[in-house]
Amino acid sequence: MVDDLPKIDRWNSEPLDVHTWSDHPEIKALCDSLYEAAGMSSLEPKGNRKAKRTVKESLRVLILDLYVKWLRDPSISIGFSKGREAYTVQRSPKYRTSPKADEYRQSDCQHGIGPLYE
Predict the structure, then answer these.
(1) Upper half-sphere CA count for residue 22 (Cβ side, 13 Å)
(2) Which of 60, 57, 59 is nearest to 27 (CA)?
């Protein structure tokens, strides 16, 4: 499956914009159905500690940013750093990736859902 994908042009890429947001009911419904279909409820934190951003909210940011960038240029790639040190300058600590998100991305790549480039 990964062999069928076109080669990613890293020079035609932009970082993930974590500030993309929408409250449209259609977007909420789409993200809810994707959340359920992918079984992402297992990524929600267990216990009393409340996350700054839920997995559903993170999924909505990702879907919206992919769509907005695709509208501008369908061949563009979106990149993000996998290392926690890339997110040490925190203007807003609400917008950073969690170790659980790293685990999920790694799991996707192992199951052939998305390519993994080191």
Answers:
(1) 17
(2) 60
Residue 8 structure tokens? 């990613």
Identify residue 6 by its one-letter amino acid code.
P
117, pLDDT greater than 50: no
Contact by Cβ (8 Å): 10, 79: yes
What's the predicted TM-score (pTM) here? 0.64
- Give the list of residues 6+ apart from residue 108 with CB closer than 8 angstroms, or none: 114
pLDDT tens string 69-109: 999 999 888 887 777 666 555 555 555 556 666 666 665 55
CA 78/CA 34 separation, integer angstroms: 19
* Residue 11 backbone class (left: φ over 0; alpha: ψ -120 to 50; beta: rest): alpha
Q: Domain residue spans in the chain? A: 22-110
